[in-house]
């Protein structure tokens, strides 16, 4: 890879590839089409094609948009000087962005479908505390993009390692040990992707499909009523008693089948040919069918390590792993990092060991939220049930209570499972939080990534000596709800003591 780096001189001003002119044209047409498609749709529907001046305006807007993007293309440049990535852009309004290499948290190579057609990549550089989500270099060939990524990540790693040698020789020894025993490349097989695709994101996709189905039903009803309401009513009345139940069952199972197939196809397209390996203390993942991605994550800047597993995935020894990093800014709630679908337990353990130089923690023994939480949630659940049954009693509708009582039992079971599965462990400089009902999430939060600790209590919690612990990190806030207040105080003191004693740096 060093030879590849030497083929390019990034210390001088570098321009985008000439083939990126096709990207300029494509993005221009897409921008204009997205802005004017409602107007064009109205013109086509009403067949008012004689408005030549409207098409003239569209043509002028297209030319101006293309000229603007063309100027941005020719006046865009990037270089690396004195351990800084410098981006220059603009003609009349010039701007220069400089990012220190040791502040870079992630370097991604992305290739959308239009980029694949012309053989170019987008390089996205994510940093903490920047005004924008990322720095984007849109339009360089694969070899140059790979060389730039390699230079940014290895140069940044050299800075980090040199600081560690001065401040902490132990960390340097751990790095040598990890280089002596590198893990093999992890490749998620097609079978594993199919398994994880069939068993993930049920509720999210199911909710979207239900909302989408209601929209379609409303449109069909409006169409039938506008054309011939009496015909629609006759059909509905004739089929109500005989076919409605059958149609409902078919639609329900059809919706479930659609959700499963949709999840499977989306997973295969997104994570096709998923590979991840370790080089220079960086996790580098590559995946994607229509859109290709190459993502490099520095191991020392991982903020949280999270994995989840449901019942079916447990039977197949599969985990979905999320490696979270620093948010770009407060307005951007999307955490940066990696999602690794379909890893088995051995691969999960290897990844954890690579990042933290430690093994996974035994979670058999741990602290649970106070039992009052289960009681309070159950009492809150009883309120709507009692109100509903009371209304049914006074309206002579108690024969519908068979709907309310099973729902009550189901929701209570979900509340109980949520309480049963929740657990917190503080061990080996990690806070581990396990929670969930169907998808059981396990979050590992290193002590050295905690920026702030606070305990919150409501008036009623104060009387019962219950509180919630808030752990602020660069990747978001982790909250431990409704634990014994005395335990939380001891935990807070121990966390703060370890942070002060070891002088951790969350970056």
Give the SSE map.
Elements: H1 2-6, H2 20-46, H3 52-74, E1 77-81, E2 84-89, E3 95-100, E4 104-111, H4 113-118, E5 121-127, E6 135-140, H5 142-167, H6 169-180, E7 186-187, H7 190-198, H8 202-271, E8 275-279, E9 282-287, E10 292-298, E11 304-309, H9 311-315, E12 319-324, E13 337-343, H10 345-356, H11 371-394, H12 401-421, E14 423-427, E15 430-435, E16 440-446, E17 450-456, H13 459-463, E18 466-473, E19 476-484, H14 485-502
Antiparallel strand pairs: 1-2, 2-3, 4-5, 4-10, 5-6, 7-8, 8-9, 9-10, 11-12, 11-16, 12-13, 14-15, 15-16, 17-18, 18-19
Protein name: YdbS-like PH domain-containing protein
Domain YdbS-like PH: 75-151, 271-329, 419-484
Keywords: Membrane, Transmembrane, Transmembrane helix
Quick structural gist:
The protein is α+β, with helices and mostly antiparallel strands and 507 residues long. The protein is 52% helix and 23% strand.
Account of the 3D structure:
There is one protein chain. With 507 residues, this protein is an alpha+beta fold. Among the domains are: 189-271, no CATH class; 371-502, PH-domain like, CATH 2.30.29. The chain has helices at 2-6, 20-46, 52-74, 113-118, 142-167, 169-180, 190-198, 202-271, 311-315, 345-356, 371-394, 401-421, 459-463, 485-502; strands at residues 77-81, 84-89, 95-100, 104-111, 121-127, 135-140, 186-187, 275-279, 282-287, 292-298, 304-309, 319-324, 337-343, 423-427, 430-435, 440-446, 450-456, 466-473, 476-484. It has a 7-stranded antiparallel sheet with strand order 6-5-4-10-9-8-7, with helices on both faces. A 6-stranded antiparallel sheet has the order 13-12-11-16-15-14. The chain has a 3-stranded antiparallel sheet with strand order 1-2-3. Helix 5 (142-167) crosses helix 6. It starts with a helix and ends in a 5-residue tail after the last helix.
């Amino acid at each position: 890879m060093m030879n590849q780096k030497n083929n390019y001189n990034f210390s001088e001003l570098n321009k985008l590839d000439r083939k990126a002119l096709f990207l300029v044209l494509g993005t221009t047409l897409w921008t204009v089409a997205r802005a004017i498609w409602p107007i064009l749709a109205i013109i086509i529907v009403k067949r008012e094609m004689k408005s030549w001046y409207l098409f003239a305006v569209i043509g002028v807007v297209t030319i101006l948009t293309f000229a603007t993007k063309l100027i941005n293309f020719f006046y865009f440049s990037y270089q690396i000087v004195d351990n800084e990535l410098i981006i220059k852009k603009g003609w009349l309004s010039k701007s220069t962005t400089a990012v220190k290499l040791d502040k870079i948290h992630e370097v991604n190579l992305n290739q959308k479908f239009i980029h694949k057609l012309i053989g170019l990549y987008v390089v996205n550089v994510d940093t903490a505390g920047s005004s924008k989500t990322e720095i984007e270099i849109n339009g360089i060939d694969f070899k140059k993009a790979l060389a730039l990524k390699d230079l940014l990540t290895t140069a940044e790693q050299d800075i980090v390692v040199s600081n560690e040698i001065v401040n902490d020789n132990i960390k340097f020894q751990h790095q040598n040990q990890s280089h002596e025993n590198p893990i093999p490349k992890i490749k998620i097989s097609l079978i594993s992707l199919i398994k994880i695709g069939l068993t993930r994101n049920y509720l999210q996709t199911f909710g979207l499909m239900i909302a989408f189905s209601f929209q379609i039903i409303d449109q069909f009803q409006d169409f039938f009523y506008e054309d011939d309401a009496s015909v629609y009513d006759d059909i509905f009345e004739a089929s109500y008693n005989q076919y409605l139940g059958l149609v409902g069952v078919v639609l329900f199972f059809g919706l479930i089948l659609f959700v499963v197939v949709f999840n499977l196809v989306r997973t295969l397209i997104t994570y096709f040919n998923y590979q991840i390996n370790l080089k220079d203390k960086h996790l580098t993942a590559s995946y994607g069918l229509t859109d290709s991605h190459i993502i490099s994550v520095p191991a020392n800047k991982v903020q949280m390590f999270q994995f989840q597993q449901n019942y079916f995935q447990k039977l197949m020894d599969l985990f979905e792993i999320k490696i979270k990093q620093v948010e770009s800014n407060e307005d951007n709630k999307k955490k940066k990092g990696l999602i690794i679908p379909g890893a088995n337990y051995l691969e999960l353990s290897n990844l954890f060991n690579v990042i933290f130089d430690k093994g996974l923690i035994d979670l058999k023994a741990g602290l649970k939220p106070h039992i009052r939480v289960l009681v309070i949630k159950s009492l809150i659940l009883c309120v709507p049930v009692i109100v509903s049954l009371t209304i049914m009693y006074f309206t002579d509708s108690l024969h519908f209570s068979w709907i309310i009582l099973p729902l009550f039992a189901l929701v209570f079971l979900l509340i109980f499972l949520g309480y049963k599965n929740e657990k917190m462990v503080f061990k080996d400089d990690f806070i581990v939080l396990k929670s969930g009902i169907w998808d059981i999430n396990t979050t590992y939060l290193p002590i050295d990534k905690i920026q702030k600790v606070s305990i919150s209590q409501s008036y009623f919690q104060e009387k019962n000596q219950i509180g919630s612990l808030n752990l602020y990190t660069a990747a978001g806030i982790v909250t431990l709800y409704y634990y014994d207040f005395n335990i939380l105080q001891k935990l807070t003191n121990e966390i703060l003591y370890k942070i002060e004693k070891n002088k951790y740096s969350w970056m």
